[in-house]
Amino acid sequence: MMRVPLYAICLLAFFACSSRPENVQQTDALPEIFPDYVGVTVPAEIAPLDFCMADEAFTAVDVEVRGRKGGSLHANGSYAGFDIDAWHALLAANRGSEIEVTVCAEKDGRWLRFKPFPISVSRHPLGEWGVTYRRVAPGYALFGLMGLYQRDLGSFEETPILQSSQIPGQCLNCHTSNRTNPDQYVFHVRGEHGATVIGRNGKAELLNARNEYLGGSMVYPYWHPGGRFLAFSTNKTLQMFHTARHRRIEVYDASSDVFVYDTETHEVLRDSLIMQKDWAENTPAFSPDGQWLYFITSRQQDYPDGFDKQKYSLCRVAFDASKPGYGTAVDTLVSTTQTGKSVSWPRPSYDGRFLMYTQADYGYFTVWHPEADLWLLDLRTGQTRPVSEVNSPRAESLHNWSTNSRWFLFTSRRDDGLYTKLYFSSMDEQGRATKPFLLPQRNPRQYYARLLYSYNTPDFASRPLELDARQMGTRIERDERVPTK
Description:
Elements: H1 6-16, E1 24-26, E2 33-34, E3 41-42, E4 52-53, E5 58-67, E6 72-77, H2 84-93, E7 98-107, E8 110-113, E9 117-121, E10 130-136, E11 147-152, E12 158-163, E13 171-178, E14 181-190, E15 195-200, E16 203-208, E17 210-211, E18 216-223, E19 229-241, E20 249-262, E21 267-269, E22 279-286, E23 292-299, E24 313-320, E25 325-334, H3 336-339, E26 342-348, E27 354-360, E28 373-378, E29 384-386, E30 396-401, E31 407-412, E32 421-426, E33 437-438, H4 444-450, E34 454-461, H5 469-478
Parallel strand pairs: 1-8, 3-9
Antiparallel strand pairs: 2-4, 5-6, 5-7, 7-8, 7-9, 10-11, 10-34, 11-12, 13-14, 14-15, 15-16, 17-18, 18-19, 19-20, 20-21, 22-23, 23-24, 24-25, 26-27, 27-28, 28-29, 30-31, 31-32, 32-33
């Protein structure tokens, strides 16, 4: 990407300043903007943080951005939209420092100048090209239009990986790469031509979506860092509906187990330690060194009566990739008998220091739980705490780390309680997070008002995934599958 020198930024600001507002009244209040970027910390590589006034009665804005180390930008119109190259040059020049944003806004023909606010530019690089995610309508019965997408975080460009229109009648789930590496990926397809698609070494294998000897589908995958093994859970997933206004749907499993799949031998590695009768194991994840397999477990309840008694603890078992095989004992790291809560979606940071998980009152499908929050386990000390810097009164759930372990993303319903949107935050060496910021979009009010889909199963991507969607759709429709044993 072309870098613009600071003198060019100043020239851009000079030519853009010809229509500055006049007779401006000063106020000591901070501006209320959408998205709320006041006081956030961002990587220098992030796309421009375009914004508008939260109050739609404001019909125009005039915004000046100045770097503490130099450089400035100016934008005006119905929203603040910044030139991509000039924005990146300004942030690069102010890495490790701050930029200051001054907002003037027009309401009822009168201009107000608000108190300036800072945006910190982290000294830590993002280290990733972009993100991948599923976009899905928040429906309950029909698949509808959905897809797996990838987005360049340095710009606003989004491209589809695979869409449901290319495999009619099928449901796309859970695209997962190995430590953000698109050369190794897996996703699941449900429907008449269901499959578990594993991409590795430039080739894609399609496994049967359901394995009867496992008792369910191969879902919720997580790669072993060596790239040979994949941890899955096998689930019989059902849903029911609440009558309470603040809760809508409950997704649960009639049964579930955890296992590891060997991509070279096509063998499923089962063990009674992680496939216990009368217990439900779920959402596995390998440690960054590959020596531990994290998972959650709960005594299986009878549904629907016991839905709020299904509470999961966080556990781990040793894994030896050279044999391959499991250890002889299971360690409990976070126990529901001590917390009275339920753990789900364990995700260790790639530097091995922390493990982030979601905590809720019960269950594991926490995207529908308003009380769900992100928690952080310090793997050195064993101490846990809520990540209060990013949590909200509504559901926070699916999350993942950047490979340098300095950034994480997560989904949240904090905006309207209906749609999950994608947020980002940074994490320092002591485990302190910064104020989260919403995925930037050009003309954000218009984009998010028109978006009728939720962001789901997000992850970082080191570069774009190259997938022939038409060819993949044809292969999925053919029913040719690699047998497992």
